[in-house]
Each structure stands twice: as structure tokens, then as C-alpha cells.
Write a structure and sequence with these properties.
heterodimer; A: mainly alpha; 14 helices; B: alpha/beta; Rossmann fold; 2 domains; 8-stranded mixed beta sheet; two-stranded parallel sheet; 17 helices; 45% helix
């Protein structure tokens, strides 16, 4: 009743091709952005901003980047943690080695380095496919772990191998308080999400999807697999690299290679599988599910007033979390994003389904 | 997808949303008066749990003892909340953010990685960071690291004492010349911390230092011990934690490397590390910060006031084990810092993190005080100051005799001549990297 596009006539290609062709969607996203940019920083408590929303935003960005590669181009990657690490360490090196380096430039440089490394490790994708490629990208993960642990130049000769940054600022504005950090990440995420959405709607995105759906057919109609696959690796790694730099700079403040271990790669892959492969929206759903649910489950016994030991609660958390993943994958193998669109379809017919 | 499943999912979603709403309005009932809040970061799960659990139990039991025996700290009840970090930095940061707003007295993150991340955060939140025997070695310098307290030792003092012990065994520092000493370490900031000091000592005495990293968590060490077999170092220093320690000892047995030539850090010298290896680990040495056993009065008190009342946190037979006792010591130092702060800022009042920091900086635990607290013989006296956030740089060597740990050396002190300049240089580098300045003498008074 409320959600239907009757009477919204498209009179130009432009209006037909906008990201949100339905007025209600446009309004909803406007309200959401307004809430995220204005209401949340004003109202949310510090814990919420620092420990939940900021990591959620950063991991959403990383999931978004990975989704471009896995969801849109069909190239399974287990090297996401490595590309995040490259982004973080490259940005760190830019920061310490160049005096007065602006934060944004350092982040983008981190992204660019990740692009180069990503494209390099994407080369095997020209020959191998599917699970074999996943194993090949695993090499990136182990290589990055090794490089950042062993090569002292990358960590500015830090004796412990841990690096840290402090006093971040953006065009003279400090990024210190929880709200500032949140807004900074949110702004970057919003820009990248818009860019990503437009890339996947452009000829490049269509090339990726053609390769994903059937590479031989794509080649026959004139798509260059080399170009499509390597651009997918490059663009994805760029986004992931920026997310890695944000994770180190804004969220942790001080980190070691363990922050970008193989666990991180798996975590991000699970995010997009649960959220929805090949969906920008799905990256957000998946990140929300994986970041927030464990924290929620962890605190649930305390709120309910059930006295259980930390160890039991922690183990229970793993079990419930695992069970929920299985449940969602059985209920909807295409991820939460698919559920979302089914919900929208139903809403269109509501309350008179035929 | 049927409508039915969609409904079910909607219900599940609503539950999650309700939980999320509760997340926003997390209860802050702990802010009542007369309760001193102690956040406890622990890991009772994961590869480090065998060592993390007794440590966490000791910390909690001591707080229970303070409440049950003394009625709190000068009448202020101790309250606490545990948060599981799993030894992971990001989860540790989440725990820190969750617990800091509840009036945290101090944080003891129990992990070097989390310590590094929190070191950047505590100055803004004005909460002291207690890292007994771990963390950032340079943080000993209190004029540069206002909020860090690596009490009783760092990896620099620890490795220095091991080298001294080896020199004593060999019959003098000059005998170290030409020897080969290998460091088998957890490949993380924790394991890398001792390297600068060992390099310094290697230069001084002319021994060769061989670095053998072990990938975390350290269950796979075949390659490392193959290198040990090939190069046959005269001594092996073990810088491990959790499951890495027992694995290293098993590999040493398999390689045939003599266990009495092995020296572990104080995190590699507890019961869980050698229990599985048992008799075969006989002769293995490790640094000791504290004694173990159920004889000390404080442990007896814990048994009497906490465990006999059925309030014990862990199994009774684990009470008084090495890491358990270390947990008790950590919590005792924290409680004493609160008590010391109360002497200045008001007896029987709840102390803020800032006030507890002053307490940590002005700890004066002499033998008499330790005896009265029931810690006679458990640890050495220590006293801190603005310049010295460590308080004591003494440790002993203990040896596993196949069934229990026994002390096999007197207390040794880390060589100030070596440590001091290194701490100074490292602190200077930290300050200049962070564009910070040293604290002024006036700041020391606050």
C-alpha cells in the first residue's frame, strides 16, 4: 500500500536509470543517511560508537570491497586480510616517512599499494578458477603475514613489530573523539559505497558479472578476461586496502600483523556469503550480522541477569552464532540481501497479495 | 521461500533488534556509590586458555577475598566484571570500551598486543594500565609513559636476568664469548620484545644470538627445532605462551635438546607448560616472579574465606599454582594502589582511574607491609615513583624437577647499566614519534 511505485512515471532514461528508481526508496535512504550522519553521533553513547559502529563501518567497507571481487566477478579470494594489511602498513609508512602527510592521502596511498599487490596476486586467476583460486590467494595471506613480521623496514624498525599512529586529523579537524572517528569512517564508506554501486552498474561491472556467470561466453562476446579479472582484483583490493588502513588507524590505533590474520579473511568472506554475494546492500547486512551479533550474544546473559561464567558464555556465543549462520543459510542461501528484496516484493503487494 | 519461513525470520530479526535496542541502553547500575569497579579482561577460551584461566581465577578470587575478609577496601566494596578477549586485540579493544565507562580502576589486559592498542587509548580516558611482567619494556620510564605500569619486570629485565643466570652457570660473563644462544619466540610483539636487549648483551659479551620465530599460536614448531638440531646452540631461551610452551618442550625432547640448557620467560614457567611433558621436562628452567603453593597466608585466606564458602572461581586444587598466584599478586597490587590513593584522596571513598594512577605511582610495599598482607615470601618488596613505574627488577630462576617447580637461584637484579640507557632511548623515540613531551616534575605531584 505504502510501498508501490504506481503513478511514478519515468519520462527519461536518466530517471529510469537512477540507483533508487522508486520514490519511497529515495526517501528511505535519505532518512537513513540523515540518521547516520546527524542523529547517531549526537545520540549514541561512546561505547556504541567506538566499539560497535566504527568497526561495523570499517568492516562493511572491507566486505564491500571483497564483494566486488567475489560477488560480482566470481573470483573467490582468501587474501582479504593480506590486502587490508598492505593498506594499513603502506598508509602507516606514508605517515611516518613523509612529514605532514595528510591522513586522507595516506589512506588512499595505502589503497593504491593494496591495488598493486592485489593485482599481482590476481594474476593466477587467469589460469585457475574457483576453489583452486581461493587456495592461490591464500598465498597472499601467508606472504603478507611473513613480510610484515620479518621485514623491519615495513614497521619502521619497531623492535616489537607493533606499529601505532596518533593524533589523526583531517584538513585540520582532529579525529580523536568517538563521534569524529565514526563520522570520518561513515563519510568514507558512503563515498565508496556510491562509487562501488556505480562501478557495478557501469560497463566494468557488467564485464565482471559476465565473467562470473560464464567466462567462455563472456569471452565470445568480446570481453577480455584478463582485463575484467585484473580490474576486479585491483578495484576490490583498493577498497579493502583503505578499509585496512582505517582499521589500523582509526579503530585499533596500534596493531600487529595478527590484526589482519587469516581469521580476518575468513570473517570477511563469511560476511559477504551471509549478507549476500553480488549485492552492495548484502555487504552491510553481513558486516552487521558478524560484527554485532557476537557482541550482543556476549552481553545477553548479563542483561537477562543469568549468572554464567565467562567461559561458558563465550562458548555458548560460538555455538549460537554458528547455529544462526546455519539457520540463515538454510532459510535463504542467497543471503540476507535476498531476504531483504523478498521482503520488499511482498511489501509491494501488501495488503492484497494475489 | 514460503511466507512461513519469512515470518520465522522476521521474528528472529525482531529478537535481534530488541537486543540491539538493549545494547544502546546498556545498564549502568554499577555507578552507585561505595563500589570500586575492577574490569577484568580475561581469556578462558582459545589456545591461551590453559594459562589464562588460572590467572583470571586468581584475580577474581582475590577481590572476593577482599570483600569477604575485609569488607572491601576501607569499606568500599570491590565489584568486577569479566570480559572475554580470546587474546585477540580487536576483542580486547571492544572489552575495554565496554568496561571503561563503568568507573574502571585500572586495566590489566593480559596480552601484549592489547596492551599496545590500549597504551594509545588510556591517556585520553585517564585509566592506568597495569602490565605486570609483560607489555612495553620502555614503559618502565614513568616520565614518558604516565599511564603504564609494567610492575615487577619487563621482557628486557627478564632476558637480562636469564643471561646473568647463564653466565653464572658458565662461570662468568667472559665465558659467554663464542657461545651460541638461541631465542625461540612467539612471533608477535610479546616474543620480539626481548630481542633488543639480547642483541645488546650479545655485543657486550661476544656470544652469537640466533633468532628462531614460531608462528602464533605455536602448535607447529617442527621447522624451528630442526634448526635447533642443526645449529646446536649452547642455550635456548623460550619466549612462549599458552600451548606453545608445552609444544616446545615436547619438540625439545624429540630433538634430544637438553632441557637443562633451556630457559623460559616467566610466562613459560608454570604448571600447564610442563604438566603434559612431565618427567621428560626435568631440568627445564624458567624465570620466576613469584612462588607457588598453598602455604602463603593469603592463599590460605582465599581457601578459607572464598573456597570454603563455595565461592571459589576455579577448581580448589589449582589455587596457589604459579599463574594463579600471579593473578592474586596483580589484583593485590591494584587493590593496594586503590588503598594508597585513598590515603591521599580520602579514605573510604571510591577512587577514579586518575586517582588510582597516583596510587600506582606511589606504591611502597616493604617487607613488613607484604607480610601483613599475607604475601610473606611470595614476592619481593617493591616501590614505585614518578620516574620508575616498575618498582622492582628482581627475579629468580626456577627449575622443573619432573613433578614440581623449585627455586634454584637467589634473586637477581637486572643490570641497570644496560637497561636504563635502553629504556631512555626507546622512550625518547616513542615520545618523538608521537610528538609528545616528557612529564614535568610538577606533573609528578598530581
Amino acid at each position: 500500500m505504502l510501498y508501490r511505485e504506481n503513478g511514478q512515471f519515468k519520462t527519461s532514461y536518466r530517471s529510469d536509470q537512477q540507483i533508487f528508481p522508486i520514490l519511497q526508496d529515495r526517501l528511505a535512504i535519505g532518512v537513513l543517511l540523515l540518521l547516520a550522519f546527524v542523529a547517531v553521533p549526537l545520540a549514541a553513547p561512546e561505547y556504541m560508537l567506538r566499539a560497535i559502529l566504527t568497526p561495523f563501518l570499517i568492516l562493511s567497507l572491507a566486505a564491500l570491497g571483497l564483494n566486488l571481487l567475489v560477488g560480482y566477478c566470481g573470483q573467490i579470494s582468501l587474501g582479504t586480510g593480506a590486502f587490508m594489511a598492505v593498506g594499513a602498513y603502506a598508509a602507516y609508512n606514508a605517515m611516518v616517512r613523509v612529514d605532514g602527510m595528510p591522513l586522507l592521502v595516506a589512506l588512499l596511498l595505502g589503497g593504491l599499494c593494496a591495488t598493486a599487490v592485489g593485482a599481482l596476486f590476481g594474476i593466477p586467476s587467469l589460469r585457475i578458477k574457483g576453489l583452486y583460486l581461493a587456495v592461490a590467494t591464500l598465498a597472499a595471506q601467508f606472504f603478507a603475514d611473513w613480510a610484515f613480521l620479518r621485514i623491519p623496514a615495513f614497521t619502521n624498525n619497531s623492535s616489537s613489530g607493533s606499529v601505532s599512529v596518533a593524533r589523526l586529523s583531517f584538513f585540520g579537524l582532529p579525529i580523536e573523539s568517538p563521534a569524529q572517528k565514526y563520522l570520518f569512517c561513515l563519510a568514507i564508506l558512503a563515498v565508496f559505497a556510491l562509487l562501488a554501486k556505480n562501478i557495478v552498474r557501469s560497463h566494468l561491472g557488467r564485464e565482471w558479472m559476465a565473467i562470473r556467470d560464464m567466462d567462455v561466453a563472456a569471452e565470445v562476446i568480446g570481453i577480455r578476461p584478463v582485463h575484467a579479472k585484473l580490474t576486479a582484483f585491483a578495484v576490490s583490493s583498493f577498497v579493502v586496502g583503505v578499509a585496512g588502513a582505517l582499521w589500523g588507524f582509526v579503530h585499533l590505533g596500534s596493531w600487529e600483523p595478527a590484526a589482519f590474520s587469516i581469521d580476518r579473511s575468513f570473517q570477511l568472506l563469511f560476511m559477504i556469503i551471509i549478507g549476500g554475494l553480488g549485492s552492495i546492500m548484502g555487504s552491510f547486512f553481513g558486516a552487521a550480522f558478524i560484527v554485532m551479533l557476537p557482541v550482543l550474544l556476549d552481553q545477553l546473559p548479563a542483561w537477562l541477569g543469568v549468572p554464567i561464567s565467562t567461559a561458558t558464555s563465550s562458548n555458548l556465543q560460538f555455538m549460537i552464532f554458528g547455529a544462526l549462520i546455519v539457520f540463515f543459510l538454510i532459510a535463504e542461501p542467497h543471503g540476507l540481501a535476498r531476504l531483504w528484496s523478498i521482503g520488499k516484493e511482498k511489501l509491494r503487494l501488501w495488503p492484497f497479495p494475489h | 521461500m514460503t511466507l512461513e519461513t519469512l515470518k520465522r525470520i522476521a521474528v528472529a530479526g525482531a529478537l535481534v533488534a530488541a537486543g540491539a535496542a538493549a545494547l544502546v541502553t546498556a545498564p549502568s547500575a554499577l555507578a552507585q556509590a561505595k563500589e570500586q569497579f575492577f574490569p577484568l579482561l580475561v581469556y578462558r577460551t582459545g589456545p591461551y586458555a590453559p594459562n589464562g584461566t588460572p590467572w583470571a581465577n586468581g584475580k577474581q578470587d582475590y577481590l572476593k577475598l577482599i570483600n569477604a575478609r575485609d569488607g572491601g577496601i576501607n569499606g568500599v566494596k570491590a565489584v568486577w566484571e569479566e570480559c572475554e578477549t580470546g587474546y585477540a586485540t580487536d576483542r580486547g579493544v571492544e572489552c575495554y570500551e565496554r568496561l571503561k565507562g563503568k568507573g574502571a580502576s585500572f586495566f590489566d589486559p593480559q596480552a601484549t598486543g592489547i596492551t599496545f592498542a590500549l597504551t594509545e587509548k588510556v591517556p585520553n580516558d585517564k585509566i592506568p594500565l597495569l602490565t605486570l611482567g609483560y607489555g612495553l619494556s620502555a614503559a618502565q620510564d614513568g616520565t614518558a609513559f604516565k599511564w603504564n605500569f609494567p610492575l615487577m619486570g619487563s621482557y628486557w629485565t627478564g632476558s637480562d636476568i636469564i643471561i646473568q643466570a647463564i653466565a653464572k652457570k658458565e662461570g662468568g660473563f667472559d665465558k659467554l664469548k663464542g657461545k651460541k644462544i638461541a631465542l625461540v619466540y612467539h612471533d608477535s610483539p610479546f616474543g620480539k620484545e626481548p630481542i633488543p636487549l639480547l642483541q645488546e648483551r650479545a655485543k657486550m659479551h661476544g656470544f652469537e644470538l640466533q633468532l628462531l620465530p614460531v608462528t602464533a599460536p605455536g602448535v607447529e614448531q617442527k621447522a624451528t627445532w630442526l634448526q635447533v638440531r642443526q645449529s646446536r646452540p649452547d642455550y635456548v631461551l623460550l619466549w612462549g605462551w599458552g600451548v606453545m610452551n608445552s609444544t616446545a618442550l615436547k619438540e625439545a625432547v624429540a630433538t634430544g635438546y637438553p632441557r637443562d640448557k633451556m630457559y623460559g620467560v616467566w610466562w613459560s614457567g608454570a604448571e600447564p607448560d610442563v604438566k603434559d611433558v612431565g618427567e621428560a621436562a626435568k631440568g627445564y628452567n624458567a624465570l620466576a616472579l613469584n612462588t607457588s603453593g598453598q602455604q602463603p597466608k593469603v592463599i590460605q585466606d582465599i581457601l578459607k574465606y572464598v573456597h570454603d564458602k563455595g565461592q571459589g572461581t576455579g577448581p580448589r586444587e589449582e589455587v596457589g599454582s604459579i599463574l594463579y598466584t600471579r593473578g592474586v599478586i596483580i589484583q593485590m597490587l591494584g587493590v593496594e594502589a586503590v588503598r594508597r590513593a585513598q590515603e591521599r584522596f580520602g579514605k573510604g571513598k571510591v577512587m577514579t582511574g586518575e586517582q588510582v594512577r597516583w596510587g600506582f605511582e606511589n606504591l611502597a610495599l616493604d617487607q613488613k607491609k607484604l607480610d601483613s598482607l599475607g604475601f610473606a615470601g611470595v614476592l619481593r618488596p617493591l616501590s614505585t615513583s614518578c620516574a620508575d613505574h616498575m618498582g622492582s627488577t628482581w627475579a629468580r630462576i626456577e627449575t622443573w624437577d619432573g613433578s614440581k617447580w623449585t627455586m634454584t637461584s637467589d634473586f637477581m637484579q637486572a643490570d641497570e647499566q644496560i637497561i636504563k640507557p635502553m629504556v631512555k632511548t626507546a622512550a625518547e623515540k616513542y615520545l618523538s614519534d608521537k610528538k609528545l613531551t616528557r612529564r614535568t616534575p610538577a606533573d609528578c605531584q598530581t
